[in-house]
Fold:
Amino acid sequence: MSRSPASTPAPVVVRTRAELAAARAALEPATVALVPTLGALHAGHRALLDRAAELAERVVVSIFVNPLQFGPAEDFNRYPRTLDADLAMCAEAGAALVFVPSVEQMYADTGGIAVTVEPGELGRMLEGASRPGHFAGVLTVVAKLFHLFRPDVAVFGQKDAQQLVLIRRMVADLDFPVRIEELTTVREPDGLALSSRNRYLSTAERRTALALSRALWAGSAQTEQAAVLAAAAEVLAEAATADPPLQLDYLALVDPNDLSELAPDYVGEAFLAIAAKVGTTRLIDNARIKIGPGP
Structure:
C-alpha cells in the first residue's frame, strides 16, 4: 500500500559517508532494511521497498551507479539517472533514509580502490564469464554499503539470481551480520522482467526480447534436464531469426546454490538462466524450476 506524503515524512537524503553515519545513528534502535540500487527505479524496485517495509521498522536505500561493476565497453555513461523520480518513489514508499553518494565519495577520497572483494570461481561463471570483473565490483560496493548502513536485513531481486548467490556466499564467508531476503522477479504484463535497461529497447526490440520469458516458461513446463534445455533453446533459436534478432550469450541449467552443472540423476530445484542481447541492450532472466518426478 502506498503511503501519502501527509502521513509519512520525506526521507533524509545524504550524500557523504559522514552524513550517512549521523543519519543512520538517528535511526537507532529501530530495525533497518536496506534496498541497494543503481537508481532508475521502477515497479520492481517499489516491490523491494514494500517488502523491506514488511521486514523492518525503517527502510533505507542507496542510489549509486557503481563504476566498478561496469566493463570498459558497457553502459556506465549512458545508464539512466533519474534521481528526482527515484527520490519521489522512495518518499512514496515511506523510506526513512536515502544515500546518494558520488563516485569520489565512495572511492576516490580513499585514494581509489586497492582492495576489492574477490568472488572466486562462482564469480567467473555465467555472467562472470561474459562480464569479467563484474562481480568483484558488485561485491565490493555491497560490502561497503553493508558496513556503512549496518542493516538487519537487505532485500534483492531474484532476477539477478547469480548476484544473490554471491552475496549470500559473501555474507556467510565473511560473517556479515545481515539477513539476505530474496524477492520474486517482477514482470511487465507481457512477461518481460522489469529492468532499468528495458527503456533502451525500441518497440521492435522489445517484441524480440519477450523470447527470454517465453523460453523460461517453455523450459519450466518440462521436468527432465535435456527437455528443459531443448524447449528453451527452441524458443531462443526462433528469436534469433526475428527482426531484430536475439543474440544469445548463454542458456544454462545449474544448481541454484552453487551454479554447478547438474548431475545426470539430479532431482530438485534448478536454476534456468538466460542472457542475450537485442540490439545493443543486454538482458538477463531466469526461473527456478523443478527437475525430476514428484509434486
In short: The first helix runs from residue 17 to 26.
